[in-house]
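In this section we walk through a basic example: taking a raw amino acid sequence and producing a predicted 3D structure, encoded as discrete structure tokens. The instruction is simple. Fold the sequence below.
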Amino acid sequence: MFLTAADALVVDPQFCVGVEDAVAGVEAIKAAGMFAVYISLQENLSIADMNLNHTAELNYSELNQQFAAIKNRVS
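The resulting token sequence is shown next.
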């Protein structure tokens, strides 16, 4: 599903951000090679690149900063 979305948008998956509230969803995002944001009030997920309690906490500046930090470590 995530790769299909990236393909439909004609965007390389490494430049995509996926937001999920399920562990299986985060696993799928990571398997697609994307930056994963996990939304959960109950736990943090170590495989996620970013953990938030609620989607209202999504902040472009923070997301961009963490996304860039991950990409800089990889390159």
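Looking at the output, two observations stand out. The longest strand covers residues 35-39. Residues 6 and 53 are 25 Å apart (CA to CA). In the next section we compare this with other chains.
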